[in-house]
Amino acid sequence: MRAIIAAAIGLGAAFALVLTLTAVGSPSGETSPKPLLTTVPAHP
Predict the structure, then answer these.
(1) CA distances from 41 to 2, 29, 36 (A)
(2) In the prediction, which pLDDT does 24 show?
(3) What is the DSSP string of the chain?
(4) Which one of 15, 36, 40, 44 has the lowest number of neighbouring Cβ atoms within 10 Å?
(5) What angle do CA 4, 10, 16 make, to 5 degrees?
(6) Whole-number Å distance between alpha carbons of 31 and 19
(7) What's the CA dihedral at 20, 21, 24, 30 to 10 degrees?
(8) How far is residue 10 CA from its own chain's centroid?
(9) Which of the two residues, 4 and 38, has the higher pLDDT score?
(10) CA-to-CA separations, 10 to 1, 4, 16, 20, in angstroms, rounded
């Protein structure tokens, strides 16, 4: 029973966090002009 209560509290906290972040909105910023390195360079 305690596990179910803990899970419900955790889900409620996560949902509240998502709602808070949605209400605040994404921070206004610019993406980096440099592309992310997605490939591993070849080993010598």
Answers:
(1) 50, 30, 13
(2) 79
(3) -HHHHHHHHHHHHHHHHHHHHHHH--------SSPP--SPPPP-
(4) 44
(5) 135
(6) 24
(7) 170
(8) 16
(9) 4
(10) 14, 10, 10, 15
The tokens of 6 are what?
């803990």
- In the chain, the amino acid numbered 42 is A
The terminus-to-terminus CA distance of the chain in angstroms comes to 57
Q: State the pLDDT at residue 9.
A: 96
Residue pLDDT, tens place only, 5-43: 999 999 999 999 999 888 877 666 666 667 676 677 777
